[in-house]
What we know:
It holds the Pfam family Alpha-amylase. This protein is of the alpha+beta class and 731 residues long. It has three domains: 5-122, Immunoglobulins (Immunoglobulin-like); 188-606, Glycosidases (TIM Barrel), CATH 3.20.20; 614-730, Immunoglobulin-like. Helix content is 18%, strand content 20%. Helix 6 (352-368) runs parallel beside helix 7 (395-402), helix 8 packs across helix 9 and helix 12 runs parallel beside helix 14. The longest helix is centred in the last third of the chain and has 20 residues, at 528-547.
Amino acid sequence: MATAKAKTTKAKTKAAPVETAILDKSITDIRIDYYPTHEHEGVKFRRGHAMPFGATTVPNGVNFSISSSAATACTLVLFDRGADKPFVEIPFPDEFRVGDVYCMIVFDLDVERLEYGYRMDGPFAPELGHRFDKSVILSDPYARSLGGRDTWLAEPNWDDVYPYRSRLAFEDFDWENDHPLEYPIEDLVIYEMHVRAFTKHENAKVKNGGTFSAIKQKIKYLKELGVNCIELMPIYEYDEWENSKPNPVTGEMLVNFWGYSTVNFFSPKAGYAATGKFGMQVDELKTVIKELHKNGIEVILDVVFNHTAEGDHRGHTISFRGIDNKTYYMLTPEGYYFNFSGTGNTLNCNNPVVRDMVLDCLRYWAADYHIDGFRFDLAAILGRAQDGSPLSNPPLLESLAYDPILAKCKLIAEAWDAGGLYQVGTFPAYGRWAEWNGKYRDTLRKFLKGDEGQIGEMVQRIQGSPDLYYYRGPTASINFITCHDGFTLYDTFAYNEKHNEANAEDNRDGANDNNSWNCGAEGETDDIEINFLRRKQIKNALAILLVSQGVPMILMGDEMGRTKQGNNNTYCHDNELNWLDWSLLKKNQHLFEFTQSLIRFRKAHPVLRSSTHFTHTDYVGSGYQDISFHGTNAWALDGSPGSRSFAFMLDGEHAKQGAIKDDTIYVAMNMYWEGLSFDLPPLSNGRQWHVFVNTDMPEKEAVNTLGKEPRTDSQSHVLVGPRSVMILVGK
């Protein structure tokens, strides 16, 4: 290894000669490529390494690397933390550029206090796709941490010359023996949550409510419920002040609460960390993930690679637009932004540079944060070409599917976008991708409210949608009835129409096709019968969800009767419309226990968690098909348009988890307004039918203790009440 002592030149940015003599033995330990060759205003530096992108520590310095295909010059801008002005701006010498990459090592920096950014010079020619402006200091797309917005909803300094400040993150966290849990996807019960909304309500009774650290205080609750995976709504750095405005009625500030508008894809949101004001959000998030893993709970991140917070041509230049607009965004021939995301711009994901950034980002979260999987918002966009047309073989989706670092991560697509591309069942999967099954949600809601013509669809949905995922198996289907976007489960049976007036958009926003039913009164009511029916419908929904093949996902709070007062688009509310009111747990304890019991039931019965589709044959010689369908008459399914009831039976002898044999499970669903008698299929080998769930019973009797289910009064038939579900166990 060549070593030498280098002279420090007094001339600005001029190279210094290297002496061959070794004047001090200690210098022999210094590599020549980690020793300064240039100086600018007292700051020493040298040519850096083109890879990796971003800012990384090297011996005695920091390597900065950034690429732009069209910039004519680049300047590195360095700040002390929180300073109004930079302490130095260093232009990259021409010889520091490798292809389109500018790279520099700067020495003797206080990395704990450092904030950095870039100025990019180049043409401002929107018609050609270029929007360079060297007066703007730009955030690094690869920054591992951002400063400047360290506390949730603290009003920013609108005159700040550099509001989103790139910082370094350090790899000194002690993970101990932690690693991703790698559960088989068919064994997951997913719980979708928003970090701030989960614990911000005063009734959560936690320290530092609304933060990563507060989740740690609720792990016991998650374990008691029985979920083994949480899916976190966006936790990347975003600006909650984006598009903020006062509510004209209440005066309350409406903000970007959900966070689907990313500023930086590598940085956890400082405003979600109790220690964010100290710049410790990275360690705080890692601590929570480690603790969740210790308790057997996986972590999936909701990632938003379809657009950024920069918006259209009227938006702020923060990072991507000023660095390489034509590379990072899909543009029309006139230089305007395609808007397949519905938010002003669309990330150009199948450009090789952007594709590499997405891959680098996900690899970073998987390797450095031990993340177990990713849910991709509006993922159909990821399969669009630069001109917006759908690709038959999208390179990004293929790269993600076959990437070795992501090999054990769950990949889940929201298989549609705001431009009308709907790919549920046809999303390019490469044997790896699962999908949010929007057809499951729509079919279940229609069936539950008694729509005609749903039996054929229901038969598909409860099997894991083989009509959609025949070659991919039931684990391709993430089954859900509710998610953050739309009504809660309670509101699905309390409102016929959306009530979004609080959003200050004259009730125009949010979906109109909710497939909901208010059970006889719009909103809250004192009517005992209506309230009983609503609670029964919630149980019906949860029961069907948790006995369906595929992967069930529960929305935060549905297990305790959470309401958003009929608002189906609460994206802008940092208040009780979004905050989970933990007092509901006591008020609706029966609903929590019902959900808890169903999750335990699912985990106890492998026949409910098949990784392959049913064959509708008896391939083990048990005398029964692996699955069979029934009506009020055994073995005779009524699939006519007017039918609103059916049953299915799963033969436990066909359970596919090793040599384990399961009980037989029979599920009867009656969405008529009158009770129906269902003939029961006879059991062999002395087995008898036992009742696990009957949603028509009073609340404390709707579910029985797992393993201690009482025998049915009759082994030949059961009476299934109006709009109710029964689950029987044959043992």
